[in-house]
Amino acid sequence: MRRDVFQAIADPTRRQIIGMLTHQQLNLNSIADHFEMSRPAVSKHIKILTQCGLITIKQQGRDRYCSANCNRLSEVADWVEQYRTFWNSKLDALDKFLTDNKSSI
C-alpha cells in the first residue's frame, strides 16, 4: 500500500511521535515508553511514518534511533495554504461589508 503524508498525520499518535522527534532523536523503546499501547502497536506507527518519509531510522550499535524529517510536511503546508488564502479573502470581504454597512445594521 502506498502511503502519503496526509495518512501519516491523520492519527494523533503519529502526530505526537513526530512532535517528540522534532526535539531530539529517540530510540524505539524511548518512543514506546511515552504511550500506553503495546510496543508492536508503536512499531506499526513508526513503520507508517517511515514509509511516508516523515522519519528516518538509523542503526547505532544495538539501538535504532528515529529522527524527524519535517521537510515532508511542506506538502501539507502547501495544501493548507490554499484554504488559508480562500478564507482570508472571504473574511476580508465580510469585514468590508460590515464596515460599509455599519450604519444600516
Automatic annotation (TrEMBL):
One GO molecular function term of this record is: DNA-binding transcription factor activity
SUPFAM superfamilies per the record? Answer: Winged helix' DNA-binding domain
**Taking every annotated instance into account, which residue ranges of this chain make up the domain HTH arsR-type?**
1-88
Q: List, alphabetically, the CDD domains matched.
A: HTH_ARSR
Q: PROSITE patterns, alphabetically?
A: HTH_ARSR_2
Pfam families on file = HTH_5
> Which NCBIfam families does the record cross-reference, listed alphabetically?
HTH_metalloreg
Which PANTHER family does the UniProt record give? TRANSCRIPTIONAL REGULATORY PROTEIN
UniProt name for this protein: ArsR family transcriptional regulator
Q: Could you tell me which species this protein originates from?
A: Mucilaginibacter yixingensis
Which lineage? Bacteria, Pseudomonadati, Bacteroidota, Sphingobacteriia, Sphingobacteriales
